[in-house]
């Protein structure tokens, strides 16, 4: 082989091994994020704590995890529409939380949202998988301790468990798994409503937000990702995605 070919071959080997090392890192991130449900991650499969295995080969979640890792700085507007598309790795969340409404429902419990402020006005159905119910209870307690001027933003929670597709899309919303909550609609901004009002082009979306960051921080501390960080923002939406914070 001449010198030029050697250099190309070495570069190729280096790139491929780099990609593999990076993919392995991302899978380890997944295991760290979900210690209750993922027992081990090898080069070829994800081993779940129920003994089942999910082959990694040809598994589109690889792209999703890498996309997540690229956005780990979580700066506002950094997460693109493609990153939040669920269709390619829905299989992963179906395995984690339930493959049908019936299966998801067997794992749901009711928690009362901020009962010391709102009484028993807001029962929310959330999953017990990964301790999401306990995490949301801790969030609820922390929000109760904020000055009362903050409470209007988290009053009237619009939705928790609800098996449905994302509006106008072919893939399931994270609400389907009992891991998402929408806070007060009256103070929320959704990119599509703002876009339709402003008649601007889609490449010029600028985040509009009324939700105080004190509230966002309380959710993020428990591994809940905020829709206000997405380029196509949805500021009332929070979902349990601890792999983004590992
Ligand atoms: Zn939502």
Could you give a short description of this structure?
This protein is α+β, with helices and mostly antiparallel strands. 39% of the residues lie in helices and 13% in strands.
Overview of the molecule:
Helix content is 39%, strand content 13%. It has 246 residues and is of the alpha+beta class. A hairpin with a 3-residue loop joins strand 1 and strand 2 (45-48). Helix 1 crosses helix 2. Mean pLDDT is 81; it is low at 69-74. The site of zinc ion (ZN) has 5 residues, from strand 6.
Shape descriptor: globular
Radius of gyration, whole Å? 20 Å
- Bin the helical content: 25-40%
Average pLDDT metric: 81
Low-confidence stretches: 69-74
The overall number of domains is 2
Structural class: alpha+beta
In spatial order, strands of the major sheet run 1-2-3
Give, in order, the helices and strands: HEEEHHHHEHEHHEHHEE
Strand content: 5-15%
The distinct bound ligands, ions and cofactors come out as: zinc ion
Distance between the termini: 44 Å
Helical segment count: 10
Tally the beta strands: 8
**Most strands sheet:** 3 strands, antiparallel
Features:
about 250 residues, alpha+beta, 2 domains, three-stranded antiparallel beta sheet, about 40% helix, binds zinc ion
């Amino acid at each position: 082989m001449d010198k030029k070919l050697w250099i190309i071959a070495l570069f190729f080997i280096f790139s491929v091994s780099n990609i593999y090392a990076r993919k392995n890192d991302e899978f380890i991130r997944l295991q760290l994020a979900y210690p209750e449900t993922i027992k081990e991650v090898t080069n070829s499969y994800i081993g779940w704590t129920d003994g089942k295995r999910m082959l990694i080969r040809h598994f589109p979640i690889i792209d999703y995890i890498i996309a997540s890792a690229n956005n780990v700085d979580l700066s506002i507007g950094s997460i693109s529409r493609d990153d939040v598309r669920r269709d390619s790795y829905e299989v992963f969340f179906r395995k984690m939380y339930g493959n049908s409404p019936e299966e998801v429902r067997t794992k749901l419990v009711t928690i009362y949202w901020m009962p010391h402020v709102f009484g028993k006005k807001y029962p929310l159905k959330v999953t017990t998988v990964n301790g999401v119910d306990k995490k949301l209870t801790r969030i609820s307690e922390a929000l109760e301790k904020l000055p009362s001027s903050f409470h209007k933003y988290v009053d009237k929670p619009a939705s928790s468990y609800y098996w449905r597709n994302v509006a106008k899309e072919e893939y399931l919303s994270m609400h389907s798994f009992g891991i998402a909550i929408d806070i007060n609609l009256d103070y929320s901004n959704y990119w599509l409503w703002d876009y339709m009002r402003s008649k601007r082009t889609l490449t010029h979306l600028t985040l509009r937000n009324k939700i105080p960051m004190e509230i966002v921080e309380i959710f993020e501390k428990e591994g809940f990702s905020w829709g206000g960080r997405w380029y196509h923002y949805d500021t009332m939406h929070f979902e349990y995605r601890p792999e983004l914070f590992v």
